[in-house]
């Protein structure tokens, strides 16, 4: 899993299949904008977590593997 911020501040995600790296990746926009680089980590359950600082300065996170994979403000 890769995360990237483009020149317009949009967050993009890409995944590469194991042992299929030659196929390349397709970058998919998340619909979110951020300042600085997006970050990826794993939570205690092994799910990939994407974290960004939104244009409004709030921390926004999203976990892969949840039915409603979208950003939520952390409280």
Please give the radius of gyration in angstroms: 13 Å
Question: What percentage of the residues does DSSP assign to strands (E)?
Answer: over 45%
User: What structural class do helix, strand and pairing data support?
Assistant: mainly beta
Spatial arrangement of strands, main beta sheet: 1-2-3-4-5-6
Number of helices: 0
**pLDDT < 50 stretches:** none
Describe the structure.
The relative contact order is 0.21. The protein has strands spanning 2-5, 10-14, 28-42, 48-54, 59-63, 72-73. It starts with a strand and ends with a strand. The chain has one domain (2-73). It has no helices and 6 strands. A 6-stranded antiparallel beta sheet has the order 1-2-3-4-5-6, with no helix packed on it. It has 75 residues and is an all-beta fold.
